[in-house]
Specification:
alpha+beta; 31% strand; five-stranded antiparallel β-sheet; 24% helix
Length: 108
């Protein structure tokens, strides 16, 4: 049975709606993370968790990896975004700590 875009969109929407109910340890147990339009993921993280992007980088596969953090709620979420504009939550948790940049240049 092949699932078309309307069915897949419904499944993704349902998974995204259930995100707040997933336990923090679900990723370690091999659970699938929700994917949705990048703008919707960012909007949801901002509205529900008061998270904003604090770091980003390009992954070796060309995807954009972003980390969203809320200092107020003490939560963080790692999101990968594909070239087609779909973002997937790949990890989330509590107690994010940012470290100052330390140069590895021996002359520094």
């Amino acid at each position: 049975m092949k699932l078309g875009p309307p069915v897949l969109s419904s499944i993704a929407a349902a998974a995204f709606a259930l995100l707040p109910m997933w336990p923090i340890g679900a990723l370690a147990q091999g659970a699938r993370m929700p994917c949705h339009k990048a703008t919707e993921v960012a909007k949801h993280l901002g509205n529900k968790y008061e998270e904003a992007p604090v770091a980003f980088g390009l992954q070796s596969n060309g995807n954009l990896l972003q980390v969203y953090v809320s200092k107020k709620k003490d939560t963080w979420t790692a999101v990968t975004t594909f070239a087609n504009g779909i973002s997937c939550i790949v990890a989330y948790g509590r107690k994010w700590e940012s470290l100052p940049y330390v140069s590895t240049d021996p002359k520094a």
